[in-house]
Specification:
Structural class: alpha/beta
Number of strands: 17
Distance between the termini: 48 Å
Radius of gyration: 26 Å
Bound molecules: 5'-O-[(L-methionyl)-sulphamoyl]adenosine
Largest sheet: 7 strands, parallel
Oligomer: single chain
Strand content: 5-15%
């Protein structure tokens, strides 16, 4: 894949459950990365979707007496709607019950088999339906639960195995040679010690239920739901056809996942790919988990956070902003209504919104609704001021931060520019200059509007609606809103009209 292309994926979501804040979080983080990369000129493919097979989904459907396909259709549609409602810019939405996926999976299975990595045996051991994962006796807690707290059951049945143990050294070698493969570092170390602890062969088929894709040569067996699910990332590129999208976008730039499913992505998936001779994704990015007002989120506690309700109550951009701003990507974080309101008011409303409002309202009133009509030559001078030097440095830093998945650092950078601009407006006091030095007032206001143009362009990945609203108010042409346009050449046209200022970030109570 050329470096002009960028392929990013969310995990595909189990359809046994309705969308919650965890799903929203992963999706928004990927969306921010995807939008950022598009704005920086990359050709992006952004994939999301739903994981519809397996015992967990089959059981959930049984409980409500609905056929699994119909059940999956219903919940998948809710995830689809979540993407729309959260303004997620995914280019594709894959469902594992789609024909394209099933065909791809069968082909992938056959390749694994042809490579000599699959054999038939018998699985005797523990399985957790909730986690859709196998556990060894030694991993169980004293109460006989999975390390995740999920119940387990004893399984004894014929099963196909993937020769995972064979790949242990190759995996360790790969982690060693590709230090950027697993992000963040702390999680990388966890994965390495897990693999060093010894890998045993992985059961990759089951015979005790029906809801899934049958093993091509032996339809009594249903393919293990994780092998099924992971294949979505190449199925969406047309695999086994290794042309077109596949050449363009494989290997993926980043699989973004929660920390709970890192092992599947950083151990099993690379081993499968090595076995069939495909390239490995460039990075597996593991984010943390949200708690709700300090408590673990769980259905039994009844404190699950509904993303649709968040958007309704606080607004879309406000919700997106908070989730990206509140925690260092990679760490766990706590959802607190008070913090959401506080960040909205002190950062979006008081810093960014206020800078726009006080600048453009003043311009609208005292500069004849026009971008201050300064001598174009003066734009060069503005670009040499400390404020613009800082902006230029930040643009470079944003790229580095985003490439390193430090999403919230980019927000901090944008806030930093806003703070500098707020200090500048207070220091220069255009309202006083209006009487003493109108010429200087025009220059100060021009600098501020130009700074706002940068802020709005940079905000687009995070708060797309508000940012485009800001750019509309500044009358920035639609085709001049990417990162390429963040330079002097595209500076606001002196004398161009601006639109009537309207608040973009209302305060929340
Ligand atoms: N279907 C699998 C993924 C297969 S990918 C090939 C799955 N689905 S899931 O719906 O259970 O979870 C999807 C994502 O939501 C996971 O990355 C998980 O980490 C994330 N989250 C679930 N609860 C979460 C929080 N409370 N906080 C943050 N993310 C959480 O796993």
């Amino acid at each position: 894949m050329s470096s002009d292309n960028f392929y990013i994926t969310t995990p595909i979501f189990y359809v046994n459950d309705v969308p919650h804040i965890g799903h929203a979080y992963t999706s928004i983080a990927c969306d921010v990365l995807a939008r950022f990369m598009r704005l920086s000129g990359k050709n992006v493919k952004f994939l999301t979707g739903t994981d519809e097979h397996g015992q967990k989904v089959e059981k959930s459907a049984e409980k409500v007496n609905i056929a699994p396909q119909e059940f999956a259709d219903k919940t998948s549609a809710r995830f689809h709607k979540m993407m729309k409602d959260l303004n997620i810019s995914n280019d594709d939405f894959i469902r594992t019950t789609e024909e394209r996926h099933k065909q791809s999976l069968s082909a992938f299975w056959n390749k694994l088999k042809d490579s000599g990595n699959i054999y038939l045996g018998e699985y005797d051991g523990w399985y957790s339906i909730r986690d859709e994962a196998y556990y060894s006796e030694s991993e169980l807690t004293e109460d006989g639960l999975a390390p995740t707290g999920a119940p387990v059951e004893w399984v004894e049945e014929p099963s196909y195995f993937f020769a995972l143990s064979k790949w242990q050294d190759k995996l360790l070698e790969y982690y060693e040679q590709n230090p950027e493969f697993i992000w963040p570092k702390s999680r990388r170390n966890e994965v390495i010690s897990f693999v060093k602890g010894g890998l045993i062969d992985l059961s990759i088929s089951r015979t005790s239920f029906k809801w899934g894709v049958p093993v091509p040569s032996n339809p009594e067996h249903i393919i293990y739901v994780w092998l099924d699910a992971l294949t979505n990332y190449i199925a969406a590129l047309g695999y086994p056809n290794e042309q077109q999208d596949f050449t363009k976008f494989w290997p993926a730039s980043a699989h973004v996942v929660g920390k709970d499913i890192l092992r599947f992505h950083a151990v099993y998936w690379p081993a499968f790919l090595m076995a069939v001779g495909l390239d490995l994704p460039k990075s597996i990015v593991a984010h943390g988990w949200w708690t709700n007002e300090g408590e673990k989120i769980s259905k039994s506690v009844g404190n699950v956070i509904d993303p649709f309700a968040l958007v309704k109550e606080f607004g879309l951009d406000q919700t997106r902003y908070f989730l990206m701003r509140e925690i260092n990507f990679g760490n766990d974080g706590n959802f607190s209504r008070q913090n959401l309101i506080m960040r909205n008011n002190s950062e979006l409303a008081n810093k960014i919104g206020n800078l726009l409002q006080r600048t453009s309202a003043f311009v609208y009133k005292y500069c004849d609704r026009q971008v201050p009509n300064i001598e174009p030559i003066y734009i060069n001078v503005i670009y040499e001021t400390p404020l613009f030097k800082e902006i230029t440095a930040i643009i470079e830093n944003n790229m580095l931060q985003m490439q390193a998945f430090n999403i919230n650092k980019v927000i901090e950078n944008i806030l930093h520019i806003t703070e500098l601009a707020n200090i500048y407006i207070d220091a220069e006091a255009p309202w006083a200059l209006r009487k003493t030095d109108p010429d200087k007032m025009q220059k100060v206001l021009y600098s501020l509007l130009e700074t706002l143009r940068y802020i709005a362009i940079m905000l687009q990945p995070f708060t797309p609606d508000a940012a485009s609203n800001m750019l509309d108010q500044l009358n920035v042409p639609e085709n001049q809103r990417t990162f390429i346009n963040m330079n002097k050449e595209y500076a606001l046209q002196p004398g161009a009209t601006i639109r009537e200022p309207k608040p973009i970030f209302p305060r929340l109570d």
